Amino acid sequence: MGASNETFSKREKEKARQKKKQDKQGKRDDRKANLTKGQSLDQMLAYVDENGNLSTTPPDPKGYKSVDQEEIVIGIAKREPELVEVVRRGTVTMFNSAKGFGFIRDQQNQQSVFVHQNELIDPIQENDRVTFEIKNTPKGASAVQVRKLVKTPN
Q: What residue spans carry the region label Disordered (predicted)?
């Protein structure tokens, strides 16, 4: 007599498949049995109260507040780059006239601020003392309205 072609693992896999199939059929039967047909629309509705919680009872119409559609803000307003109107003083630490940009060291907080040649009122060089205003840009602070301070003779 020959040995069976069915191994232990094949039998176990087949048992698992059969069990899975039976479980699936049982769940399908349960869903069909528990399905309540013929519910009215009112029984299927859910309401949201003033706190945002779901409830089965409709809200009290006496508590309604009228809202003007124009007052409703959707999203936020686009923020424009702010221009701070404070005139600052500083020293040009580096300026490359060929490339058209440089940096100014702010006297007040020793912060290095970017400056572009388009924002210059007077031509500047390294170590010049200047006045400027700071404009916040998407890339960071930038100096605008840059003017060279004239040295006063003593």
A: 1-41
